[in-house]
Design goal:
Elements lengths: L1 H23 L18 E3 L14 E7 L5 E3 L2 E5 L9
Antiparallel strand pairs: 1-2, 2-3, 3-4
């Protein structure tokens, strides 16, 4: 009888942890429009520290594709880039 009680208590605790985890995310999952920082076609500007000596217009590029990882591919620049590499939009 004591073993059954311990098993039931463990099941209730696990269920409670799952419910709390779902509630803490606010009902949104990563990748929903509220979490996306860039979209194909929009322009982004590299931070000046990454491209010293270049004017803002020379550091501006267009987003070609948004990857599932949250990184972007840009027109005219090779490689994948993250949000931290760019200036915040005003």
């Amino acid at each position: 009888m004591l073993g059954g009680l311990a098993l039931a208590a463990g099941a209730i605790g696990a269920f409670g942890a799952i419910v709390m985890r779902k509630n803490s995310s606010g009902g949104r999952r990563r990748g929903t429009p509220a979490d996306i920082w860039a979209r194909p076609g929009m322009t982004v500007v590299f931070r000046a520290e990454l491209m010293p000596g270049r004017e803002r217009s020379e550091r501006t590029f267009r987003v070609a594709k948004l990857l599932p990882s949250g990184r972007v591919l840009l027109d005219g620049v090779s490689g994948e880039h993250t949000e931290k590499e760019f200036e915040r939009q005003r």
